[in-house]
Amino acid sequence: MRFPLSLLGSMSRYMCWQKFFGKPKFPLVLMLEPLHACNLHCSGCGRIREYSDTISKHLSVAECVDSILESGAPIISICGGEPLIYADILELVDCVLRLGKHIYLCTNGQLLESKLSDFCSLAQTNRRVKSRLYWNVHVDGMQRTHDSIVEKCGAFDIAMSGISAAKCAGFLVYTNTTLYKQTNIDELVELAKLLESVGVDGMMLAPGYGYDSVKVSGGENDFFLTRAEICEKFREIRTRLKKFKITATPPFLDFLCGDRTLQCAAWANPTRNVKGWKAPCYLITDKHYETYDQFINSTDWSKIGYGNDPRCENCMMHCGYEPAAVLYANKLTDLIRLAIWQISHW
Ligand code: SF4
Ligand code: SF4
Q1: Candidates 49, 106, 138, 177: which one to mutate for ligand 1, based on the most atoms within 8 Å of Cβ?
Q2: Does the beta carbon of 92 lie inside 6 Å of ligand 1?
Q3: Which structural domain range is residue 216 located in?
Q4: Cβ-contact 75, 8 below 8 angstroms
Q5: For residue 178, which ligand has an atom nearest its CA?
Q6: How many domains does the chain have?
Q7: Which helix (H) or strand (E) holds 190?
Q8: Atom of ligand 2 lying closest to residue 211 CA
Q9: N-to-C CA span, the chain
């Protein structure tokens, strides 16, 4: 299985209800950023730059819970910053799981191993910790590449050790790899084999996006891929990583390979952080709204996406297009491909 059945069940029931009530726009995944502080300083990270003026601020657990209830999304991606340096992370995870939600806990893995015993203790009182919490560990390549991108010698080994420990402790563990111009597909194959050997449940591959806050001041932004380059890389990935458990759904992978067009559905992945509800999307910022309703009703969704906004020209990111691939997969052939993809193993 690519994803646990409980996740697919929750998502399917939720989508049926939204469609039954005729809601034109609804969130699938809430990107919850309780803080932007981080224990690493990656070259491709926009957050620590864009939010440098609020880097010491954080949302309280109560504010996080209110935001989750406000949006109603079935999946909560707790990201940041580094969520494992959020002082109340255990309380937050406990509350979110008790709300019946699923959690992607996005981490750079540097504290994963040392925090595992706390999560194991939590699992004794909340059994959903082992079935609805998915660790999502940032790994951008093999040792030399990863350490260079995150600018910390030894970061790869620490993250891998955390991944192995989490798998040994019975957690669901996925990884998240950002692709840049320099990304070498041979190295990705090597990484996929290594992750498979430690039992990782799935590997997410995302094309890096050169949004304003990650552009190198005064320099060329030459490590981000153009749309044509993304398609070229993913065509090779589709062939060479076929036997590995890549988490991109078949319709989304078609899009990444340039074989299908999709309309950005950034409204389905809203971002909530210390400044409010970030619009229009996880990547670019025009405004932060105070409430989810203001965010969804005041943003002009017809003006975003490829062909509508020059900032979207080279974006093929999950936060805009993966929900689009799920929401618009209505054809029988898409549904059959999705079902086969879901039940296929390593
Ligand atoms: S680990 Fe994540 S949040 Fe921290 S600097 Fe790197 S990309 Fe940014
Ligand atoms: S295409 Fe969508 S997700 Fe990408 S930058 Fe534009 S609005 Fe954001």
Answers
A1: 138
A2: no
A3: 5-343
A4: no
A5: 1
A6: 1
A7: helix 185-197
A8: 5
A9: 9
C-alpha distance from residue 186 to each of 24, 189, 223, 237, 338 (Å): 42, 5, 18, 10, 27
Give the position, in ligand 1's atom list, of the atom nearest the Cα of 47: 8
Query: pLDDT tens across 111-169, in order?
Result: 999 999 999 999 999 999 999 999 999 999 999 999 999 999 999 999 999 999 999 99
Contacts of 330 (CB under 8 A, 6+ apart): none
Quick one: angle between helices 61-71 and 89-98, nearest 10?
Answer: 30
What would the pLDDT profile of 172-215 be if each residue is shown by its tens digit?
A: 999 999 999 999 999 999 999 999 999 999 999 999 887 665 55
Instruction: Give me the CATH number covering residue 140.
Output: 3.20.20.70
Distance in angstroms (rounded) separating the CA atoms of residues 66 and 50: 24
pTM of the full predicted structure?
A: 0.94
Atom 1 in ligand 1: residue holding the nearest Cα: 108
| Phi, psi torsion values for 219, nearest 5 degrees | -120, 175
Closest CA to 281 of 259, 309, 261, 246: 309
Is-contact 97 111, C-beta < 8 A? no
Reading the block at residue 78, the tokens are 């707790």
